[in-house]
Design a protein that fits this description.
heterodimer, A: mainly beta, B: mainly beta, three-stranded antiparallel beta sheet, 0% helix
Chain lengths: 124, 110
């Protein structure tokens, strides 16, 4: 059974870059399954979930346009980890950040497995 | 402002039935994209409850059911139990190939 675990600094200063790691176990990120994507989602305090971005093993990526290209996803298949970098952060980026495995198919997508989430606070 | 609209809260007594609505638009739910539902207890990983509008993953009790029509979807929980108290989110997809979520509904079991 696939498991995901987020990690990263809990506190980031405004205007700096937020960096998070998702460590995956029980399944290889590099496995050839066109339906599987790997994503990042966040939940600001008192608000709903917001999708950030997703990528597949063959390098295809999708991003939430509302983040205005501040986000970057990368992967280290040797460590079975993937990463999120979010630049020029503000207080509005304060949230619990989740990584999750996503099934994409013709009529949409859904997240099958999630990490526990990691709190990130943007503050000086 | 979430793309999909859900009521902020619903409540019900043990044993009762509650429903949670999820309303989208012609560019997401109404564009024939499937709706999925998650149960979320604060501090834990969200749990997939319903996928593909009506399908339950193995292990999810049949007390949970869902439907979709037009630009809206609905989650129903029958035989309400104390352990069902949680936040519930709907999720779909839009024409720009983006994932969209509802704002979440807090279910209180009275």
């Amino acid at each position: 059974q696939v498991q995901l675990q987020e990690s990263g600094p809990g506190l980031v200063k405004p205007s700096e870059t937020l960096s998070l790691t998702c460590t995956v176990s029980g399944y290889s990120i590099n496995s050839v399954n066109s339906a599987y994507y790997w994503g990042w989602i966040r939940q600001p305090p008192g608000k709903g979930l917001e999708w950030i971005a997703s990528f597949s093993h063959n390098g295809r990526t999708y991003h939430n346009p509302s983040l205005k290209s501040r986000d970057t996803i990368s992967v280290d298949t040797s460590r079975n980890q993937y990463f999120l970098r979010l630049s020029s952060v503000t207080a509005a980026d304060t949230a619990v950040y989740y990584c999750a495995r996503e099934n994409r198919y013709g009529s949409g997508s859904y997240f099958v497995s999630w990490g526990q989430g990691t709190q990130v606070t943007v503050s000086s | 402002q979430s793309v999909l609209t859900q009521p902020p809260s619903v409540s019900g007594a043990p044993g009762q039935r509650v429903t949670i609505s999820c309303t989208g638009s012609s560019s997401d739910v109404g564009a024939a994209y499937d709706v999925h539902w998650y149960q979320h207890l604060p501090g834990t990983a969200p749990k997939l409850l319903i996928f593909g509008n009506t399908n339950r993953p193995s292990g999810v009790p049949d007390r949970f059911s869902a439907s979709k029509s037009g630009t809206s979807a609905s989650l129903a929980i029958t035989g309400l139990q104390a352990e069902d108290e949680a936040d519930y989110f709907c999720q779909s997809y839009d024409n720009s190939l983006s994932v969209v979520f509802g704002g979440g509904t807090k279910l209180t079991v009275l």
